[in-house]
Amino acid sequence: MFRRRCSFSSASVVGFLSLMYLTGVYQYILAWSYSKYYTHWGPFHSLHPLIKQLKSGEGITVKPINEFQYPYSFSNTEKCEIKDSIRLMYVVKSALRNFDKRMGIRNSWGFESRFSDVEIRTIFLVGMNEDSHIQKLLEKEAEEYKDIIQAAFRDSYFNNTLKTMMGLHWTYHNCQKVKYFLFVDDDYYVSTRNMLRFLRDPANYPQYLEKYIVTAVNEYKENLYAGYVFENSRPIRWVFSKWYVSLDEYPYSEWPPYVTAGAYVLSRKSLEDLYFGSTYTYKFRFDDVFLGMAAKYAGIKPFHHKEFYFYRKLYDKEGYKWVIASHGFDDPNELQQVWSEQRSAGNA
To answer: Which top-level group of life is the source organism from (predicted)?
Structure first.
């Protein structure tokens, strides 16, 4: 009887330890404390003196470790050629084959002439693949709409970091007169009206609009990096998860604070600092985490707002009154219907 109990206990322990190992749960225990040991995801140097050197063309004391170096197939730099300033630019991360989604955006929230007194621009970021037919269709699209930015890297989910780096690189070098940039995925609903309202007074949106007299001052918010922010978020260590991260890939217990990559807005200055910060940050396959790493290094604090929805907010006409962006609009026809209804209601 005693032997049976010992055998059962031993088998239980072995089974438990095997389960811990196979699922990766043990890695939560072994991870290094983020608060104690994390400094930067890359060699740590004081960034702002390096930014000053890079901007002035002086000799660089420390070379960047992660520059975007892929050649552009389509650059369309004329998008930012304007005498005066551009208030808002939509930088849309789009999958190469999503022709219908891009058209849906052009016909809804990406429409550049939505407001006659506000300069708005829309561009689409894409990579490449081996399908020559798709590439020919894209070339025709780029020629017709002049809003495609394409570089020679493989267009895939885990290359979204490269796509984000391309967006930072392109906008930094070509769009000095743009005040704000909304980086957004091609399966999002966006309200341009609410985006502009938010930019007037991010900290008090939408409360300031509910007052009888609107007192918000439309001043430039120099250090804005805003969206739906995750703080104290932990890497997923479950081996069978799509988002599994081993200790070898990232040894710390938490991520730096980051804005979900589906929709986030940057001021021009924050874009510049984030761009330079990213060039001194090791590439990481999750683009939102990568930007969180670069933002922390650059000293940019992400600003959270609940009206950026990284999930699909259940739609109803009144419920979308203050929504800035919502994920989950895969159907371009539905997107245009929702946008049209919200525009008629004065919310888009």
So the answer is: Eukaryota
> Is the backbone peptide bond immediately before 206 cis, with ω within 30 degrees of 0?
yes
Tokens in use for 143?
Answer: 């020629």
Percent of the chain with pLDDT over 90: 81
Residue 39 lies in a domain: no
Report the helix count and the strand count for the chain, using DSSP H and E.
11, 11
Residue 214 identity: V
Closest to 165 measured CA to CA, from 153, 175, 177? 153
Asked, for residue 41, whether it belongs to a domain, the answer is no
Global pTM value:
0.92
pLDDT at 28: 87
pLDDT score at 213: 53
Cα torsion 141, 143, 145, 147: sign: positive
Q: Give ∠ CA 52-56-62 in degrees, rounded to 5.
A: 55
Examine the domain organization and report whether 175 and 201 are in the same domain.
yes
CB atoms within 10 A of CB 118: 14
Nearest in space to 227 (alpha carbons), one of 193, 198, 268? 198
Sorting pLDDT into bands at 50, 70 and 90, what band is 56?
confident
Specify whether 143 is located in the same domain as 228: yes
Give the tokens for residue 106.
């052009």
**Structural domain boundaries, residue 24:** 2-30
Supply φ then ψ for residue 180, to 5 degrees. Answer: -135, 145
Using CB atoms within 10 Å of the CB of residue 35, give its burial: 0 to 12 exposed, 13 to 18 middle, 19+ buried: exposed
For 59, the token pair is 């000799």
| Confidence check: pLDDT of 320 > 90 | yes
* Domains of the chain: total: 2
Q: Report CA-CA distances (Å) from 14 to 6, 43, 239.
A: 12, 41, 19
Between CA 303 and CA 227 the distance in angstroms is 7
How many angstroms separate the CA atoms of 177 and 341, rounded? 32
Q: What is the CATH number of the domain that holds 181?
A: 3.90.550.50
User: Is 228 in contact with 306 (CB distance < 8 Å)?
Assistant: yes
